[in-house]
Amino acid sequence: MEIIASIRELRNSLNNQGHIAFVPTMGNLHDGHLKLVDIAKQHAQCVVVSIFVNPLQFGPHEDLANYPRTLEADCRKLQAAGANIVFTPSVKEMYPDAVSAGEGLNLRQTMKVTSPPIANELCGASRPGHFDGVATVVAKLFNIVQPDIAVFGKKDFQQLFIIRELVKQFNLPIEIIAGDTVREPSGLAMSSRNGYLTETQKNQAAQLYKMLESIVLRVRNGTAELGILADAASLALKELGWDVDYVSFRNQTTLMPATSEDKQLIVLAAAKLGTTRLIDNIDFLR
Ligand code: PAF
Predict the structure, then answer these.
(1) For residue 117, with 0-12 CB atoms within 10 Å meaning exposed, 13-18 middle and 19 or more buried, which class applies?
(2) In this predicted structure, what is the pLDDT of residue 103?
(3) Separation of 134 CA from ligand 1 center, angstroms?
(4) Residue from 36, 37, 48, 54 whose mutation best tests the ligand 1 pocket (most atoms within 8 A of CB)
(5) Which of 88, 164, 169, 258 could form a cystine bridge with 249, CB 3.0-4.6 A?
(6) Section 172-183 average pLDDT
(7) pTM for the full predicted model
């Protein structure tokens, strides 16, 4: 397995590699990421994984500085998982036009992709600019790696949706494959941010998924209206001590608010336990 930090070297190495499957990550890898690598391996001879904590997708008061960086451990896991190339660019390599501003970076000169309005709903409502940052770095990574396929996790369903739009609307010849969410035995969706949870919070965290499961069951049984169920779940989570951002039923293919006609549904939620923001979702048919 090669570990490459420069775009030029990566391009040289990718010359004549045949089919390329790509898994973009921000590192601190867990079994959810390794599942995506496994899917990638089933689709191409050459699997490239990027590890880059993208400053452009973090808001001013988010966890960019503290985001867990565990490169050595990540590389060991990727080697064992059978990845061929790990791309680990610096911020300067990815954003040469960014200027240093004191301790931080001024990315205001950086050219960005503007996401469609759906990026301002759900997670985007409380994370302004987040999905523009994601779409921009993914577009750059796609241009650098030029993969045939790219694999993204369903846990970040809104992100997956926006990346599918990016590929469609910018005519990129890349097949996007979605990997199912990998869960702890408790049901908690695996996430790098789970590392921020205390032991007590970790025990509590599976409540988010359990709440979604219970309202999905009620939709399937036809017992109540979607809006009423979402509000009830939100209230119940608040009573359990969560700071709820949203619980929302959406149409799986458009991500628009679900109507009584929609059959392919997804329920998505975001809520904080202490200072840790967790997201989860369940897609289902009724
Ligand atoms: O899902 C992530 O880890 C990131 O948002 C991504 C897709 C690697 C872009 O930075």
Answers:
(1) exposed
(2) 53
(3) 6
(4) 54
(5) 258
(6) 98
(7) 0.96
Atom index in ligand 1 nearest the CA of residue 156 equals: 1
pLDDT reported for residue 109: 78
In angstroms, the CA 46 to CA 19 distance is 6
Residue limits of CATH 3.40.50.620 in the chain: 2-179
Q: Which CATH number fits domain 192-285: 3.30.930.10, 3.30.1300.10, 2.60.40.10, 3.30.420.40?
A: 3.30.1300.10
Cα gap 251→259, rounded to integer Å: 8
Closest alpha carbon to 265 in 250, 247, 279: 250
Q: Is 33 a catalytic residue?
A: yes
The catalytic position among 19, 30, 33, 130 is 33
- Across 98-112, 128-142, 179-193, least confident range: 98-112
Q: Give 186 Cα–ligand 1 centroid separation in angstroms.
A: 25
Which residue, by CA, sits nearest to atom 2 of ligand 1?
A: 25
Q: Which CATH superfamily is domain 2-179 in?
A: HUPs (3.40.50.620)
Tell me which residues have their CB closer than 6 angstroms to ligand 1.
24-26, 54, 57, 134, 137-138, 156, 159
Tens digit of each residue's pLDDT (9 = 90 or more) over 84-131: 999 999 999 999 888 666 556 777 778 999 999 999 999 999 999 999
Phi, psi of 113 (to 5 degrees): -85, 135
**Relative to the CA of 53, which ligand 1 atom is closest?**
10
Q: pLDDT for 83-95, tens place per residue?
A: 999 999 999 999 9
Minimal CA–CA distance to 68: which of 25, 132, 7?
25
CA of 94 to the centre of ligand 1 (A): 14
